[in-house]
Amino acid sequence: MDMPPWVRVLIMVACLFPASVECMVRHYKFNVVLKNSTKLCSSKPIVTVNGRFPGPTIYAREDDTVLVKVVNHVKYNLSIHWSVHGIRQLRTGWADGPAYITQCPIQPGQQYVYNFTLTGQRGTLWWHAHILWLRATVHGAIVILPNRGVPYPFLTPHKEKVIVLGEWWKSDVEAVINEALKSGLAPNVSDAHTINGQSGPVSTCTSKGT
């Protein structure tokens, strides 16, 4: 039996224009605050996002729009940088984050909303502060999942865990870089490396949180 014309048109439209992908707007709030932290038998205040070191992980899917409201509660100017480490700022260069390059820094007591779309990309990436040495403690991961129904380009893992490698200085990091700028020498080497904000155990003090 011959197919009615309207059925043929419907099939053609379905082939030319597949079902639209469901995209979401992901909202995050970054409160930049001071928090006391103890590592390597000594304590110091550090700049953090939401009191966490490393900062929160952003989760989104390919083609989602991400809105990150950053509120600055510390004494330093700051900005958050996204693109060098993976986020393609397609027509949203103002959301890239380098202070004094694509934006004025967020001053103490002020706030700024980063707004960008994750177009044609997936994977685990990184964000960090892009002014002074605040990136030493103000950083975190971005996990971009494929669209629903789109498989990973590898076998499905048994388990997924975000691992962020970092460094830790006992001294205030701003003092470290300021001393290096004055002397003309390289900054002092960090006192420890960290995995998800934790250093290895130290025999002379408690191993809790290492």
Task: Tag the structure with descriptive keywords.
210 residues, mainly beta, Immunoglobulin-like, four-stranded mixed beta sheet, 31% strand
- SSE string, helix = H, strand = E? HEEEEEEEEEHE
| Gap from first CA to last CA | 74 Å
Give helix % range. Answer: 10-25%
Going by CATH, the homologous superfamily of one domain would be: Cupredoxins -  blue copper proteins
Mean pLDDT: 85
Tally of helical segments = 2
CATH fold descriptor of one domain: Immunoglobulin-like
- As laid out across the biggest beta sheet, the strand order is 2-1-4-6
GO molecular function: copper ion binding; oxidoreductase activity
Keywords: Signal
Protein name: Copper-resistance protein
Pfam family, one: Cu-oxidase_3
What layout of secondary structure does this protein have?
Blueprint: H1 5-16, E1 25-39, E2 42-49, E3 58-61, E4 65-72, E5 80-81, E6 111-117, E7 123-129, E8 139-145, E9 165-168, H2 173-183, E10 192-195
Parallel strand pairs: 1-4, 3-8
Antiparallel strand pairs: 1-2, 4-6, 5-7, 7-8, 9-10
Family: Belongs to the multicopper oxidase family.
Pfam families: Cu-oxidase, Cu-oxidase_3
Protein name: Copper-resistance protein
